[in-house]
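If you are new to this repository, start here. Below is one unmodified record pulled from the training split, so you can see the exact layout before writing a loader.
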Amino acid sequence: MPTPTQHKSEDILLEARDIQVSFAGHTVLSGVSVSVRAGEIVTLIGPNGAGKTSLVKAMLGLLVPQSGTVTRKPGLSIGYMPQRLQIDASLPMTVRRFLQLGTQPGQGKTLKALKEVRADHIANSPMQSISGGEMQRVMLARALLREPDLLVLDEPVQGVDITGQSELYKLINAIRKDRNIGVLMVSHDLHVVMAQTDHVVCLNQHVCCAGHPQAVSQHPEFVALFGEDIASTLAVYAHQHDHHHDLDGHVVGDGCSDECQHDDDGDDNTKGHDHG
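And here is the target side for that same chain:
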């Protein structure tokens, strides 16, 4: 798979140029440009009210900007994973049945998608009984059933603990490599996401800074938005495990390298590095 620096213009799946969005005279986005290429993870970060959701809506065609253009690759297939989903507690529905709603992908395709996100063992579990980490993987499987060229993920680790977040981000990274698809992601989880993305776009109504995670974390506008303490701890490190985590972040395996220490309750004490 080509690295992000090897991408050509024809690899662009989705591109926004000079997007301007205003509501009731209030500017939400001003002159924002973002592109996502095949095999690349692009992550939008920024404070609440920065315009991240509005930008995604504009790029998906759900919101018409006052000015600017959005270009999509012809025939582009998009798999969308929302930030959260509420399932009526009184509605009896298994994970398998949920994935088949509105799509009818067939049993084999459904199980294949669940296996890809490492959640096939909960195929027959009621949706109401699965954990936060399992729910996010089910939602990811549903997005993958569309055979997407591009995944759009809005806060994909919502409701997942910190070690589970790391595992889910690594899974997303593996899927984009295996499928050579683009990923456009919105996230607030700076410490974890910075280790699992190729290109970061920091928004605050405009593009404050954009580029490689390490470069962005040292940019003056990033420091001004998030503070020196956060910026100084966002160096991205490679980290080798001799264990892994289950869907909710619990340690599964015989041990851990010297760099990674765990408390008795299973929480990571990974100060100064991410699970990359």
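Two things worth knowing about this chain: The two ends are 19 Å apart (CA to CA). The domain at 4-77+148-243 is CATH 3.40.50.300 (Rossmann fold).
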